[in-house]
Amino acid sequence: MYDRLPTPYGLVRYGVAPDHPEVKNCQHKFDELSSDPRFKFYGNVYIGSPPDNDIWHSYSYPHALHIPISSLFPYYNNILLTYGASTSNPLPTTNGSSYSARPAGNVLPALAFVSWYNGHPAYAHLRPKFEDVTDATIIGHGNVAIDCARILLKSSDSLAGTDIPEPVLDVLRSSRVRHVQAVGRRGPAQVAFTTKEFREMLNLEGVEYAAIDKALMDEAKSMVEKEGDRARKRLLGLMDKGVDRRKINPSSKVFELGFLKSPAAFVPNPSTGDVNRIQWSINTLLAPPAPPPLPAPAPPIVPSMSSNVTLSSTVVARPTGEEIETSAGLVIESVGYRSENIAKNDGWALPFDQRRGRVVNDGGRIVDESGVMIPGLYAAGWVARGPVGVIASTMQNAYSIASLIISDHTSSHDAQARSQSAVLPANPKAGIPPEVERSQQRIVKLDDWRRIDEEEQKRGKLLGKPREKFTTVESMLEVLD
User: Fold this and answer.
1) pLDDT tens digit sequence for 391-417
2) Of 120, 248, 278, 347, which cross-links 115 as Cys (Cβ 3.0–4.6 Å)?
3) Phi-psi region for residue 228, left (φ > 0), alpha (ψ -120 to 50) or beta?
4) Are residues 111 and 55 in the same domain?
């Protein structure tokens, strides 16, 4: 296993919210695996091309050994890509957005905000401005948007016993945010967050949830009722438990959901450059256009399978031409993630769908431009399926891909297919790439990681928390000197 950071666990360490320690229990699977003497971990090794140089994705992992993915090929007969989705979807038509030519201050991608509060070294320098902000807006209705809202509204005392880094906690202690609104371009029936995540928002101490417009909720309930989607019906029931705005305690913090709005511009304060207003385009929901008529169907080759795609998930948002404006001193853009093409500057071309931001694959098998499997190359998780699902579904995908690799490896067709491909050998060389073996950079192996892990736990114990993370690679490597 190669990782560009000295630490394992990936998204579990740097993506799961610090107040959800139970979700991090899947780390035990790695710990079980790492006890097998056949398993080897090489941290601080950056495989592939450096990240695109933009204001949010410019960290170059300067302490890591950088090698092209093709350097691995002679030494392995199977390679599995599981490097996730580590870049943000931009809001290309929104003036002042985080990826625009002239971004407004205090407008952050959710990836940056989440990575910051989880102590990722690439975002340790980030310091959102909370001192003079009372109103925050999150663009998006997924679980990540709910995570961001919860961290903004939760008391710093309740986060003090988690593994959130102390420098982050110090910044959050300065926060004056009282009102957080999560806004989506569609309606209540189309939210992407889960019931579990939303129920937790309803139970936050000192936070009141503002009621959704009754007509909007009635329309959403009617749509879901027709579809017979009981899980979504339960979620709508929770979403309907809001407090009338006129009855909200003035001393309470407020969480609110907004619908049928797309941001047109994040308008900065002329004197500070930080965002203070949002211009919105109002939407309406329309059914997708009907597909063109098909010729008379031939008898099916395989039995038809029912689809779980429903009207509520396929309706599209279209602008009405109406616009409104609201205030916000902090904006977090939570509109999805994309994967990187780690071989874009390599001598070997990784089949990569640039539009969708994922590796081209068929059920986990990486395929070339003709759709032909490249023997021995696989992808799993978000880099293969896109940024959908929760950790449990990603784990199930991992198990199925592991079974697929074993099945292919023992197949009689494998040797024949490899004889026609020069990418991965049937009989790889022993050892590891010489660049790794003789690196002047510090390669972090399992025993090294355990020393870093022990030191983090020791630091955390002094503070009454599970661990105090190192937020820079330099500080991690200093433990090993």
Assistant:
1) 888 889 999 999 999 999 888 666 666
2) 120
3) left
4) no
Number of independent structural domains in the chain: 2
| 243 and 262 fall within a common domain | yes
Assess whether 45 and 94 both reside in one domain. Answer: no
DSSP readout, 358-415? EE-EETTEEE-TTS-EEEEEEE-THHHH-S-S-HHHHHHHHHHHHHHHHHHHT-HHHH
Residue 17 DSSP symbol: -
CA 381 to chain centre: 11
Q: How many residues comprise the chain?
A: 481
Distance CA 112, CA 97 (A): 14
Residues 329 and 211 in one domain: yes
Cα–Cα distance between 242 and 223 in angstroms, integer?
A: 20
Residue 122 sits in the same domain as residue 197: yes
Q: Tens digit of pLDDT for each residue in 169-227?
A: 999 999 999 999 999 999 999 999 999 999 999 999 999 999 999 999 999 999 999 88
What's CA 47's distance to the chain center, in Å?
Answer: 20
More confident residue, 419 or 120: 120
Residues 410 and 357 in one domain: yes
Structural domain that includes position 178? 90-290+309-335
Question: Does pTM top 0.70 for this prediction?
Answer: yes
Do 352 and 317 have their domain in common?
no
Dump pLDDT digits (tens) for 286-338: 987 666 665 544 433 333 333 344 556 678 999 999 999 999 999 999 999 99
pLDDT class of 459 with cuts at 50, 70, 90? very high
Q: 67 Cβ partners below 8 Å, 6+ apart?
A: 45, 46, 47, 433, 435, 436
Give CA angle at 423 (405, 347), nearest 5°.
130
Tell me the two tokens of residue 177. 């945010």
